[in-house]
Design a protein that fits this description.
With 206 residues, this protein is mainly beta. 13% of the residues lie in helices and 43% in strands.
Length: 206
């Protein structure tokens, strides 16, 4: 505690008196009691802050090196029917009825009237036949699909026949896609007229 002397005068007799006033000092431990919880609150908030990492400039070289370029996957999800070990798929874009015909190395022809064939232990099948007269409805994205299981080595002759043209254009555009057992794909675009049968390609299976 601190003492402070205060002088005052008695007005009655003009006498001078000195009064000693004692002032209490603020307890230091109270301040400490208040500061300790505040310290822990600040420490907790700092510990839970998410550090923001400044974004560094990316050079053109870094961008090229850090990008992983994947090879396009060769899949046949857009095709109808089975894939087998060898797929031969016909696609066109009208309600016209086209037919695919595939002759295997044994001379057996797979077509809409003869949908299966065997050759040297292998087998082939026509499993998709679009826009036929017997179809419940016609589609503008038709496909026909022939697939082979354990295909025999040799030549496969692929033909397309325009059975019934149902569009105003004189020529029907189509595309034949062949996919082998390794996933290798090759496309053969072509054109055909009403009643015409054309040989699109000869595929050699090795």
């Amino acid at each position: 505690m601190q003492s402070e002397n205060t002088t005052f005068y008695n007005t009655d007799d003009n006498s001078e008196h000195i009064l000693t006033v004692k002032r209490k000092k603020f307890p230091w431990w109270v301040l400490l009691f208040l500061l300790i919880p505040l310290f822990f609150v600040i420490k907790y908030q700092c510990a839970n802050e998410v550090a923001v990492v400044p974004q560094t400039d990316t050079t053109k070289k870094d961008t090229v090196e850090n990008i992983v370029v994947e090879e396009p996957k060769k899949d046949d999800k857009q095709f109808q029917g089975e894939g087998g070990d060898l797929r031969i798929n016909l696609q066109w874009y009208s309600e016209t009825d086209l037919d695919i015909k595939v002759t295997d190395p044994c001379g057996e022809e797979i077509r809409y009237k003869k949908r299966t064939a065997t050759c040297n232990g292998g087998s082939g099948k026509l499993d998709v036949d679009a826009n036929a007269d017997s179809a419940p409805e016609y589609t503008m994205t038709p496909q026909e699909n022939v697939f082979f299981t354990n295909p025999s080595k040799g030549d496969y002759i692929i033909k397309v026949h325009c059975y019934e043209k149902r569009e105003n254009k004189p020529i029907v555009d189509f595309n034949i896609t062949i996919i082998d057992r390794k996933g290798n794909r090759k496309d053969f675009p072509g054109k055909v007229k009403q009643g015409e049968t054309i040989t699109v390609t000869t595929w050699k299976e090795e």
